[in-house]
Amino acid sequence: MIAVKATLVRDLTLLLRRRGEVLNPLVFFALVITLFPIAISPDPELLAVIAPGLLWVAALLAALLSLDSLFRSDYDDGSLEQLLLAPQPLAALSLAKVAVHWLLTGLPLALMAPVLGIMLALPAGSYAILALSLALGTASLSLIGAIGAALTVGLARGGVLLSLLVLPLYIPVLIFGAGAVQAAILGDGVAAHLAILGALLAASLMLAPWAIAASLRISING
Amino acid sequence: MIAVKATLVRDLTLLLRRRGEVLNPLVFFALVITLFPIAISPDPELLAVIAPGLLWVAALLAALLSLDSLFRSDYDDGSLEQLLLAPQPLAALSLAKVAVHWLLTGLPLALMAPVLGIMLALPAGSYAILALSLALGTASLSLIGAIGAALTVGLARGGVLLSLLVLPLYIPVLIFGAGAVQAAILGDGVAAHLAILGALLAASLMLAPWAIAASLRISING
Amino acid sequence: MWAFIHKLGSPKWFYTISAKLQPWFWAAAVLLLVVGSLWGLAFAPADYQQGNSFRIIYVHVPAAFLAQSIFISMAVSGLVFMVWKIKVADMAAAVMAPLGAAMTFVALFSGAVWGVPTWGTWWMWDARLTSMLILLFLYLGVIALRGAFTSRDSASRAASVLAMVGVINIPIIKYSVDWWYTLHQPASFTLTSRPAMPTEMWLPLVIMVLGFYSFFIALTLMRTRSEILRREANKRWVQDLVKGQVEETR
Amino acid sequence: MAFASFSEFLAMGGHAPYVWSAWGVTALLLLATVWHARAEQRLLLKGLKRRARRENSARGSAQ
Amino acid sequence: MSLCLQARQLACERDDRWLFQGLDLDIRSGEIVRIEGPNGSGKTSLLKILSGQLSDYQGELFWNGAAMNDAREHFLANLLYLGHAPGIKSGLSPLENLAWYQALSGESNEESSGANGHEEQRLDALERVGLAGFEDVPAGQLSAGQQRRVALARLTLTPRALWVLDEPFTAIDRHGVADLERQLVAHAQSGGCVLVTTHHELTASPLLRRIALG
Amino acid sequence: MSLCLQARQLACERDDRWLFQGLDLDIRSGEIVRIEGPNGSGKTSLLKILSGQLSDYQGELFWNGAAMNDAREHFLANLLYLGHAPGIKSGLSPLENLAWYQALSGESNEESSGANGHEEQRLDALERVGLAGFEDVPAGQLSAGQQRRVALARLTLTPRALWVLDEPFTAIDRHGVADLERQLVAHAQSGGCVLVTTHHELTASPLLRRIALG
Lengths: 222, 222, 250, 63, 214, 214
Ligand code: HEM
Ligand SMILES: Nc1ncnc2c1ncn2[C@@H]1O[C@H](COP(=O)(O)OP(=O)(O)OP(=O)(O)O)[C@@H](O)[C@H]1O
Ligand SMILES: Nc1ncnc2c1ncn2[C@@H]1O[C@H](COP(=O)(O)OP(=O)(O)OP(=O)(O)O)[C@@H](O)[C@H]1O
Ligand SMILES: [Mg+2]
Ligand SMILES: [Mg+2]
Prior knowledge:
The complex is a heterohexamer, with 2 copies of chain A, 1 copy of chain C, 1 copy of chain D and 2 copies of chain E. Chain A is mainly α. Chain A has one domain.
C-alpha cells in the first residue's frame, strides 16, 4: 500500500511540478474545438446539432494524446524496470499511475467542457450531463488507454500506434457518452446512458489493471 | 548536397524499415473519421455538409501527431548533436528531414482522403480538389510543425505542448484548405484558394528552415 | 553606437533609469484610468441603440488594443534579445507575456458579456472574436514553452523564436479569418459598421486607451526590475545595492 | 452626468449585470497584476536582504 | 540467513548465435561474482535472465533450492538490480527519486521512527555517494556521473541481500570507484552477495570469483 | 598543417555555481589533452563549450588565431565530437549509420573511386573496431559496448584533425581500451590533436598533457 501511495505522490509531484503541462490537454481540447467551426462553418444552428459529438470526440482525443507519456518516461530512464522488480503487485502500482492520469486530465476536461459547449452553441440544459458523462467516460478511457500505452511503451514511434490500438476500444464509451448528451438535449431520459457508462467503468476497473501489468511485462521483455 | 541527400535517404530508410509506422497516421486519420458518424449522427445529408471540415481537421491532427517524432529519436541517441556539428548548413539538412516527413505522411494522407470522403458522403466533384488541397496544405503543415517539433524536442512531455504551439499557426492553412473543398462543392472557383495555399507554402519554404535550425540549436543547448 | 546600445541593455543601467521613470507612468496610469472610468461610466451619454451596455466599450477596446500591442512588443523584445544578446529585452518579454494573456482574456470576457445584451449570445464565430481567441492560444503557447525548459537561457531563446514566428503569423491569421468570415456569414452584426461616435463618447475612450498603455508600461518596468534582481542576484552591483539598503534600515 | 441618481447609476438602465461584470473582471485583473507585482518585488528584496545580512554577519564573525 | 541463486544448463541464443550454453552457476552469500567477457559476449543478457527480466532462455533457475517460478516473490524482495540505464527521473530531485524507490521496496513506516527517519536515511545515503548539496536539484541537471551516483545511493538505502549490478562503475570517478569497491566487499562480508559485470579491474579479494563468458 | 584551439578567460556558471573561471587553454597539433576532475566538475560542459554546442559561457574562443565566430566553418570541418550519447540510430545497421556520417562530413564521391570505395572504407572501419560480422545487424540489437564501437569507427572513417571525446572508453572492454589508446597516440603523432575526458587511467605518453578541473 505504501508503494502505491508513493507512486501516486511521485506521479502527482512530477506532473504538478510542471504546472503548464497539466494544462496542455485542456488547451488541446479547446484548440481542437476551435478548429471545427473554422473548418466547418460558424453557423450556430449547424454547430448546435453537431456539438455533443464534436465535444466528445475532442475530449477523447485530448485524453488519448496525453496517454502516450503515461509510462514512456519511466521506460526511458529505467524506472519501469525497477517498478517491475518491486515486490508489490504491479497491477496496483499501475492503477495508481492511471488514477493520477485521470485526476489531471479527465476530470479537468469534464469541468471545462461546458465552457466550450457555450462556444459551440450547445443547447441549454445539457451542460451538467455533458460534464458528468465526460467525468465517468474519461475514467474508462484512461484505464483502457493505459493498456495500449503499456503495450506501446517500448516502441519508438508509439504515439500513433497507440491511437490505432486504443481508438477501437473507445467506441462504446463514445457512443454512450455522446448519446447521453444528445438525450439530454432532446429531453429523453439520460439515466440509461449514464448507467451503461458506469458499468463500463466498473468493468474496466476490474480488468484493466491486470491487462496493464501484463502489457508492461511484455514491453520490458522485448 | 551529398549530406542533404544522405539525410533524405537515411530518414526514408529508417521509416520504411518499419513499414507499419508509415501506415500509422493513415490509420489514425481513418479512425478519427469513423468516430464522427458514431458520435454525431449517421445521417448522410448532415455528414455531407460537414464532411470537408471534418476531413481537413482529421488530416491536420494526423499530420500533427506524427510530427512529435520528427527530431525526437535523433535527439535521444545523440545524432542531433552530430547534425549540428556537421559542416553543412543545418537549415538544408532539416529541410531534408521535413521533406521525408511530408512524403511519408502528408502525401499518403492526401491520396487517402477521397476514400474517406466517400464514407462521409462528400458530394461528387470535390474529390480531386480535396486531394490537391491536402497535398499542398500538409506540406505547409509539415514545415510549420517542424518548428514546434524542434522547439520541444528536448522536453519530456513534448507531445501535447507541441500541439499547443503549432495549432494556432495551422489555422490559415485550415481555412483555405477546407475552403477550397467547400468552394468546389458549391461550384465556386477554387483557384483563389489553391493560389493562397501555394503562397503559404512558398512563404513557409522560405522562412521555416531557418526557424527550424535556430530552434534545434536552442534545444541542444538546454 | 554599440557601446550605447549595450549600455542601454545593461541591467544595472536599466535598473537605475527605470526607477526614475516608473513613478511617472504609474501616476499617468492612475490619473487616466480614474478620469476615464468616471467619465465613461457616469458622464458619457448612453448609446441610442445599446443603452448603457455600451459602456463596456471603455474596457473592451483598450484591452483589445493592448492585447495585440503586447504581443508585438514581446516579439520585438525577442528579436532584440536574439540579435544583440541584450538580456533586459528578454526579461521584459518574459514579464509581458502574462499581462498580454490577461488583457486578451479581458477583451474576450468583456466582449462575450457585451454580446448577451447586443447579440443575444455569449459567443459567435465572428472574425475578430476568432482571431482574438487564437491570440490567446499564442500567448499560452509562449508562456508554456518558456516554463517547459529547465535552462533559463534556452527558455528565453525558445520563447523569442516562438514570439517572432507568432508575430509573423498574426497578420496572416487575421487576414485569413476575415476572409473566411466574409465567405461564410451574412454580416448580420459587425463591430465596425456602427455610426461614428460623438465626441463625448469617444474622448473617454481615448483616455482609457492611453491609461491602459501607461499601466502596461509602468507594470512592465516594475516587473522587469524584479526580474533583474532575480536573475542578477549574484552580481556584484545587486549585492552592493542590497547591502546599502540593509545598512540604511539599521 | 448621464444618470439622475446613484441607484440609477448602479442599475445601468437594466444592463447592470453586463456592465458591472465586465468592468469588475477588468478591474480585478488589473489590481491583481499590481498586487502580484508588488508581492513579487517585496519577496525578492526580503530574500536578498536576508542573504546580505547573513553574509555580513558571517564575515563579521570570521574577523 | 544464507541465500543461493542457482542456474542449471543455462543457454541463450541471439540471432542464431549461442551466447552461452550449458552454463551452471551457484551464487551464494558472501561472494562477489564477476561476469567477464569482451563486448557482446552476453553479460547483460545473462544478468537479465538471472534477474527474471528476460524469459527467452533455456535451462533452469533456482532460488534457495526452489524453482524460480515458485520463489519469485521472495527472490524479488531480496533483489536490487542496477542496469545500464540508471532509472532516475530527470524531472525529480535526487531526494524525491530515492523516496519513490524506498516506498517501492515496501518499507513500512513504523520500522524507523516514521517518515522523518526515512528522510534522514535518504539524506545520509546521498551524502555517502557524495551528493550532499545536490539533494534538491532536478536530476536532469546533474552530470552523467552524478546521475549514476543517485542510482548507487540505493545500495545503502534499501537493504537487499542480492545485488545485481551491470557496469556500476560507468561514469564514476576514481574516488567513487574505490568507494564502491569497498562497499561491494563489505556487503559480501556481511552475508550479502553481489553479481557484477564490469570492464574495470577489480582489486583482488578472497571473496571475488570470476566467471568468463565468450 | 598546424592547428590551434585557444580559450581565453573561459568561465561557466551553472545554477549560481562557477564550474570554472578564468580558464586559459591552448590545444595544438600533436597533443593529447586530458581534462580531469571528479564527477560534476564540468568536464562535459567544457567540451560542449569548446565544440560550440553550449553558448552559455563567458570568455573567448579562437581557432587558428581567428575568433571562433568567424572561423566556425573551418573549425567544424576539422572537428570530430563524440559525446556521452553515441549518436547511433538503433533502427539502422552499423553500415548504414556510418554511411550517413560519411555523407554528413561532406566527402565528395570523386575522391576515392566512387561509392564502392566508400563502402570498402566503412567495412574496414567496422572491422578495425571488431565488429566484423555485425555490419548488417540493427544497431539496437548490439550490446552496449558494441554500440559505442560503432561510434568509435568514425574516428578512422572520416579523417578529422581535432578529436573531442567525452568518456570514449565507456562500456569498452580491455582489448578495446588498449586499441583506442594506441589510436589516440597515433593520431597525435601524425599531427592531429585530441581532447579527451575519462576516468580511466591513460598510459603515460610524452604527448599527454593534463588539465585538472574542480
Ligand atoms: C468575445 C467577444 C468579443 C471579442 C473577442 C472582441 C474583440 C475585439 C477586438 C480585438 C477589437 C479591437 C479591434 C482592432 O484592433 O481594431 C474590438 C473592438 C471593438 N469591439 Fe469587440 N469583441 C467582442 C465583442 C464585442 C461586442 C459584443 C461588441 C458590441 C456590440 C463589440 C464592440 C466593439 C467595438 C465598438 C470596438 C471598437 C471598434 C473598432 O475599433 O473597430 N465587441 N473588439
Ligand atoms: N543542463 C544543465 N543545467 C544546469 N546545470 C547543469 C546542466 N548540465 C550540467 N549541469 C551542472 O554542471 C555541473 C557539471 O556537469 P558536467 O556534466 O559538465 O560534469 P562532468 O565533469 O562531465 O561530470 P561527469 O564526470 O559526471 O561526466 C554539474 O554539477 C551539473 O549539476
Ligand atoms: N534485444 C536483442 N535482440 C537481439 N540480439 C540482442 C539483443 N540484445 C543483445 N543482443 C545480442 O546479444 C549479444 C550480447 O549482448 P549483451 O548486451 O548481453 O552483451 P554484453 O556482454 O553485455 O556486452 P557489453 O560489454 O558491450 O555490455 C550481442 O552480440 C547482441 O548483438
Ligand atoms: Mg552489457
Ligand atoms: Mg561528463
